Amino acid sequence: MRVSKIARHYAMTWLPVDLLLVLLDWTLNALLLLSDDGIADFGSGVFLEKVHYLRLLRLLRLLKATSIISVLSDRIQSETMRILVRVLKLLVFIMLIKHLIACSWYAVGINDLEREDTWVKANDLKGKGKVYAYTTALHWSITQFTPASMEVVPMKELERSFTIVVIVSAMVIFSSFISTITNAMTQLRNLNSERSAELVKLRCFFSDHIRFLLRWLRAFRAAFTSQTNWQAPECTVKMSAFWNYCR
């Protein structure tokens, strides 16, 4: 493929998205520098915290990764590996959704720091570090997709509404995920059953023809045990005698 053709294809597909994301990063970095140097005042950093949510637009690049994974999957020859890659892709997709829900859940908890009735303050996550806060939010996100439970519960109206939306969405997403996994496991089971049937046929073939095989080996050994030069005329005579014996 020519370079000009590649450049034209990129300009018509992902170039506008990449330019938008790069300009967004540059703008955010410039605003942070202006705020740190005291050149501009953005309302005690509240404005910058809101603007940081625009970085979620980076997730648009996942669409590019999806197309690349599809192309790589088409190059896999083994049907079993294709099914396993499909299942792995679904697991990664589900974990990505749970990660986004966990981040959104934490953002809802710190949305109004002046209020005391938030799940973040109720569990004292501010003093336990970012890792513990993230894992707690991720744990909560996972429990919304499964029948599991945990000690974190919504404390105010916004958190309760967010929880309802997540649970309703999780019912649809997780049921579709379970059906897809079940279908993939059924396909794997069918492939294994076909291979088992072929092995059974092979065993039956060898068991039915083992006597003929032993007879063929004995005749072959009797015909060529004393013959060292396979191109000799005597070898040709013994070969014809061997085939007559096998018949």
UniProtKB/TrEMBL annotation:
InterPro entries: Ion_trans_dom, KCNH_animal-type. GO terms for cellular component: plasma membrane. One of its GO terms (biological process) is regulation of membrane potential. Keywords: Membrane, Transmembrane, Transmembrane helix. The chain crosses the membrane at residues 84-108, 162-185. It is found in: Membrane. Its main location: membrane. GO terms for molecular function: voltage-gated potassium channel activity. The keyword Mitochondrion does not apply. It comes from the Eukaryota. It is a multi-pass membrane protein. Residues 5-189 form the Ion transport domain. It holds the Pfam family Ion_trans. The keyword Membrane applies. PANTHER family: POTASSIUM VOLTAGE-GATED CHANNEL PROTEIN EAG (PTHR10217:SF435), VOLTAGE AND LIGAND GATED POTASSIUM CHANNEL (PTHR10217). This is Ion transport domain-containing protein. It comes from Polarella glacialis (Dinoflagellate).
